[in-house]
Model the fold of this input.
Amino acid sequence: MTPRHDGRRLVPPYLATAGRTQPTRNTLDRLTLLTATTGRVPDGLESAPLRLATLVHGGALSLAEASAHLGLPVSILRVLVADLVDAGHLSARAPIPAAEQLDPQFLERVLSGLRSIR
Done:
């Protein structure tokens, strides 16, 4: 079969989720960190979940990064991730919150104190 030249896929991405559009959990966002729960890629997965599980076994990735690597929309990936988390193949963790900003005046006093030690 010859590939299409207009950039569109032959199979729409929503077919990777069997037509489902809602994940089983609503805690997944673009910055959710995905990690593998086992040392090997699980057997018996379909194409898209298998590609995702293989990708995450290379190290932790955010959901947005995995979406970009696989060329699938984030909405589709949320469904796939939820299924793999429910099956125990992946672990999804909320992103690390941004560190609190320190007071610039406090940092200046610390820097001044360190300079005076010399």
